[in-house]
Design a protein that fits this description.
500 residues; SLC26A/SulP_dom; 6 strands; Sulfate transporter; four-stranded mixed sheet; two-stranded antiparallel sheet; single chain; SLC26A/SulP_fam; membrane; alpha/beta; transmembrane helix; Transcription Regulator spoIIAA
């Protein structure tokens, strides 16, 4: 071994493992980058650009050493809606603003606070995305045009399937999509040596060969070249930032991309024993990547658990693997762009339908319903709200429901009444007295004997809000007006309460 090779190994001791892992991640990322872009209604190359930036920019930065970033199925629906409403030139502005906002949050060390977001809301968000993604991708699988809204996509599916019968193009397209999904589902059962080829690439590759060999009448990806796809946002597009709707979209991109990336980082940390994620630095890295993607007019990026898990399972040890995967994407897009033109669109639809199904936690929801029905309700309402309304409003509804549930559970109150049959009635309130439990408190107090003196002990309360204090004052006045002794109140430990 030469001294040059020895020096290289000493600087990069895990180069062999990272090189092998980078090839696996590249093969997993390639069909997903293209599929997400096509599903979002933008040129396929824009997905490739985001994957390249995820490797070469975000991949070089600190944060989570083994998670891989790129275009994610979780943002497909939001990107599609944004492009439809504001146009493709404005996409770069939205992604650029998202990146700058993420970088600002990272510098302010706000990354750790994303861990405080209810897991049920995040899972509900992903489930809602999955449902809309599945419904939307069934249309290209049937060689049909998808309606714009989520509810319309779901309502229109029976008619789309009915129209497909007897239509040779639709049947061929559906067969390619179904075959792609079948390969993905059955790939884990093939011999281990064959499984060295990632399932998504194998599925798309087989679908491409079948469509070409059988001369099937199916739509394929349109290609315009990597440089031709780069569309920096024009200065006129920045005027859209004055629009409330566009600013809302930026906030939605930021929250969803950041939450998905940081939750993915937590999941990846459980897969390996290496350095843990620095959440603020990872948020800064994601922001830098999205800023570059915005300047290039590409898709937004997040950390992607599918690619990240493949990276860990392939034996990656350092961030070199994800950087190299970006190099391979760049070389492919630069040297072999025309290969993309042979990929059938229904095969990519099959990839995304399979990905969307993974986002819907059917089994986990059943277990959650048995153990934590409140969390299961939040998950379900968030998902259905996203389908029925939109991504941003659905997430807000989920967050509001989570806050209400937490407030309700935090306001536990207990009233213990000791009545010896004669003399004063002793009532002890313990817990947290908030307006949410006010009806229960008043019902219990008003049921006390009107012709007996009452001693109300509030010293066991941890919290007494203004609404409850006022209500207790009014109740005490009413009870005392009945001709009995004034209500005596003990409020030793409650600073917020006063004698009533």
């Amino acid at each position: 071994m030469t001294s040059k090779n020895t020096s290289l190994i000493s600087r990069f001791p895990y180069l062999r493992q990272d090189f092998a892992a980078s090839l696996v991640v590249f093969l997993v990322a390639l069909p997903l980058c293209v599929g997400v872009a096509v599903a979002a209604g933008v040129p396929a190359e824009l997905g490739m650009i985001t994957g390249i930036v995820g490797g070469l920019v975000t991949g070089l930065m600190r944060g989570s050493s083994l998670q891989v970033s790129g275009p994610a199925a979780g943002l497909t629906v939001l990107v599609f809606e944004a492009v439809k409403e504001f146009g493709l030139p404005a996409l770069g502005v939205i992604v650029l603003a998202t990146g700058l906002l993420q970088m600002t949050m990272g510098l302010l060390k706000l990354g750790r606070y994303f861990r405080a977001i209810s897991v049920s809301v995040v899972e509900g968000m992903l489930a809602g995305i999955g449902l809309v993604l599945i419904a939307g991708q069934l249309y290209p699988a049937l060689a049909a045009k998808a309606p714009d809204s989520g509810p319309a996509k779901i309502v229109g599916l029976p008619g789309a399937f009915w129209d497909a019968f007897g239509d040779g193009t639709a049947v061929a397209s559906l067969a390619v999509c179904g075959g792609t999904i079948a390969v993905l589902l059955l790939w884990k059962h093939v011999p281990a040596k064959v499984r060295t080829l990632p399932g998504p690439l194998a599925a798309v590759g087989l679908a491409t060969v079948a469509a070409f060999a059988l001369d099937l009448p199916v739509a394929t990806v349109k290609v315009q070249g990597l440089l031709g796809a780069v569309q920096p946002p024009p200065l006129s597009a920045f005027g859209e930032l004055a629009s409330v709707g566009l600013l809302g979209t930026v906030v939605a991109f930021t929250l969803i991309a950041s939450a998905e990336s940081l939750f993915s980082a937590a999941a990846v940390d459980r897969l390996h024993t290496g350095p843990r994620t620095a959440y603020d630095k990872e948020l800064l890295a994601q922001g830098a990547g999205n800023t570059v993607c915005g300047v290039l007019g590409a898709l937004p990026m997040t950390a992607v658990i599918v690619r990240s898990a493949a990276n860990v399972q392939a034996g990656a040890r350092t961030k070199a693997s994800r950087v190299l995967h970006g190099v391979w994407l760049l070389l492919f897009a630069a040297l072999l762009p025309n290969v993309l033109a042979y990929i059938p669109i229904p095969a990519l639809a099959g990839i995304l339908i399979h990905s969307g199904a993974k986002l819907v936690p059917v089994r986990a929801l059943a277990g959650l319903w048995r153990e934590h029905r409140g969390e299961a309700l939040i998950l379900s309402v968030t998902a259905l709200s996203i389908v029925a309304v939109s991504m941003f409003e659905g997430v807000l509804i989920g967050l509001a429901l989570a806050v209400v549930k937490t407030a309700w559970e935090a306001s536990h109150i207990k009233l213990e009444v000791i009545d010896k049959g004669a003399g004063p009635v002793d009532a002890y309130l313990t817990g947290n007295a908030t307006f949410l439990r006010l009806p229960k408190i008043l019902d219990s107090l008003e049921s006390l004997p009107q012709d007996r003196p009452v001693r109300l002990d509030l010293s066991g309360l941890h919290h007494l809000d203004h609404a409850c204090r006022t209500a207790l004052e009014n109740w005490a006045e009413r009870h005392s007006a009945a001709g009995t002794e004034p209500v005596k109140v003990t409020t030793v430990k409650v600073t917020a309460a006063q004698a009533v």
